[in-house]
Design brief:
The chain is α/β, with parallel strands linked by helices. About 40% of the residues lie in helices and about 20% in strands.
Length: about 400
C-alpha cells in the first residue's frame, strides 16, 4: 500500500470544500423538474425534491422566499426554480437552495403579469384610497362565475348558511380560455345595469383554483379597467389563497377563496342572532331599571303631594260653603232679572196701541197702510181702513166735512 503523503482532513472539511467548489464553478442555475416528497414545516420552510427521468436532487426553500411564490406546490407539479447549488455539510447531501419558483413554462406569462401589474399600479388603479367599503348588510348580491363551477356551489352554500334572507342573482360566464374575458365583461355589464337600478349592492367575481393559464382570463387589462368602473363594490375571489390575479388588485376587496368572498360579503346570521339576543337582554334590563326608577319617583311625588294638600274635611266644608254662596248669588241674580222683566213688560203694555183702541180711539190707514194724522188727507171717493178695538172696517168716504179752520171738502 502506498503511503498517503497529502494532508489528512475531516469529513466536514471535505464537505465544505465541495460546497466551495460547487458555489465557485456552478453557482446560481435555473432547474426544471417535478415536485416530489414536498413538505411544508411549521417553521415556514419548504423541503422537497426535484426529479426528472434521469435523476433527482434535494431542495430547500426558506420562509420569506417561498412567500413570493403565489401558489402552494404539490406532488407532481412541474416547476422551474432559480437556485444556488450547494451541499448540506452534516450529511454530505448535494441540494438546491431555492430562491425563486414558478410553474414550468409560465415564465412568459408571469413576466406579462408583472408588466401589466406595474403599469396599472402606476396609473393608480390599485390605490387603497379608491377602494370602496363593503356594505355590512347588502340588500342583494350578484355572483359572476361559471354556472358549472364547483366554486358556485360553495358560494351559494355559504351565502345560504350565513344570510339566507339576502337575495342572490347569478350572472353565468366563461371563466377560462380565450373567450373568457369578453364573456366575463358581458356578465359584469349586466350586473352593473341591475346595480345602477338599485337591485344589486355588492358583486362577487369568483372561480376555483388552477394554474396560471387557467386563471389568465382574470389578468386581462380591459377586464381590470372595467372592474374599476363598477357602480358597486366588487369582491374578487379567484383561485386559492396563494393565487393572485390582476382582478384581485383592482377589486375593492380580495378574498383568499370563493368561499371567503361569500363570507366577506355577508354578515354572519348566527352572530346577528346572538347580537339581537344580547340587545334584547339589555333592553329588558334597561326597561326594568327605568320602571323601578319611575316607580320610586312616583312614590316620592305621592308623598310630597300628601304633604302639600290641606285637610280633606276642611276642603269639603269649604266646598260646601262656596256652593251655598254660589246658590245664593244665583237666586239673587235670577230675582233681579225677574223684576226687571216685569218692569219692561209694564212699559210695553203702556205703549201697546191696542190699549188706546180699547179706550174708544180709532186709527185710520190709507191705501198705503199709512196712519193718517191730517184731516185734509181724508178725501171723498177713496178707501180707508179704520182700526177699532174689536176689528177693522173698510170704508169709502162719500162726503168729508173738515173742522179745520176755513176748510171743507166734498
Amino acid at each position: 500500500m502506498t503511503e498517503i503523503t497529502r494532508e489528512i482532513i475531516g469529513v466536514g472539511d471535505l464537505n465544505r470544500t465541495i460546497a466551495d467548489v460547487l458555489d465557485k464553478y456552478i453557482g446560481d442555475v435555473w432547474v426544471r423538474g417535478e415536485i416530489s416528497n414536498f413538505k411544508a414545516y411549521d417553521s415556514g420552510h419548504w423541503y422537497f425534491s426535484l426529479k426528472d427521468a434521469e435523476g433527482q436532487i434535494r431542495c430547500v426553500m426558506f420562509r420569506g422566499r417561498n412567500a413570493q411564490v403565489g401558489f402552494l406546490p404539490k406532488e407532481g407539479d412541474l416547476v422551474e426554480v432559480a437556485a444556488n447549488v450547494g451541499i448540506y455539510v452534516p450529511r454530505g447531501d448535494i441540494q438546491l437552495n431555492v430562491g425563486m419558483m414558478r410553474r414550468a413554462g409560465q415564465g412568459g406569462l408571469y413576466e406579462a403579469f408583472l408588466k401589466l401589474k406595474e403599469k396599472l399600479n402606476a396609473e393608480g388603479l390599485f390605490d387603497e384610497t379608491n377602494k370602496r367599503l363593503i356594505p355590512k348588510h347588502p340588500k342583494a348580491i350578484a355572483v359572476v362565475t361559471s354556472a358549472q363551477a364547483a366554486a358556485l356551489k360553495d358560494v351559494l352554500t355559504t351565502l345560504a348558511r350565513r344570510a339566507p334572507h339576502i337575495p342572490v342573482t347569478i350572472y353565468p360566464t366563461l371563466v377560462q380560455g380565450v373567450d373568457a374575458p369578453p364573456a366575463i365583461k358581458a356578465a359584469l355589464r349586466a350586473a352593473y345595469e341591475d346595480a345602477s337600478q338599485g337591485n344589486i349592492e355588492v358583486i362577487l367575481l369568483v372561480r376555483g383554483g388552477g394554474s396560471i393559464e387557467d386563471l389568465w382570463a382574470f389578468n386581462d387589462e380591459s377586464l381590470a379597467r372595467m372592474i374599476t368602473e363598477s357602480p358597486v363594490p366588487i369582491i374578487s375571489g379567484v383561485g386559492h389563497e396563494t393565487d393572485f390575479t390582476i382582478a384581485d388588485f383592482v377589486a375593492d376587496l380580495r378574498a383568499p377563496t370563493p368561499t371567503g368572498a361569500a363570507e366577506l360579503a355577508t354578515p354572519d346570521r348566527q352572530a346577528l342572532l346572538q347580537d339581537l339576543e344580547v340587545l334584547a337582554q339589555r333592553m329588558t334590563v334597561r326597561a326594568s331599571q327605568r320602571l323601578d326608577r319611575e316607580a320610586q319617583r312616583l312614590d316620592q311625588l305621592s308623598l310630597r303631594l300628601s304633604h302639600a294638600l290641606p285637610n280633606p274635611d276642611r276642603m269639603r266644608d269649604k266646598a260646601a260653603q262656596l256652593k251655598a254662596r254660589i246658590d245664593q248669588s244665583w237666586q239673587v241674580r235670577v230675582k233681579a232679572y225677574y223684576q226687571q222683566h216685569l218692569s219692561w213688560n209694564s212699559h210695553l203694555e203702556l205703549l201697546n196701541p191696542q190699549r188706546t183702541l180699547d179706550r174708544g180711539y180709532a186709527v185710520i190707514l190709507d191705501s198705503n197702510e199709512q196712519a193718517l194724522r191730517d184731516p185734509t188727507a181724508l178725501k171723498a171717493g177713496e178707501l180707508f181702513s179704520i182700526h177699532l178695538a174689536k176689528g177693522v172696517s173698510q170704508v169709502e168716504l162719500t162726503k168729508v166735512s173738515s173742522l179745520a179752520k176755513n176748510s171743507s171738502n166734498e
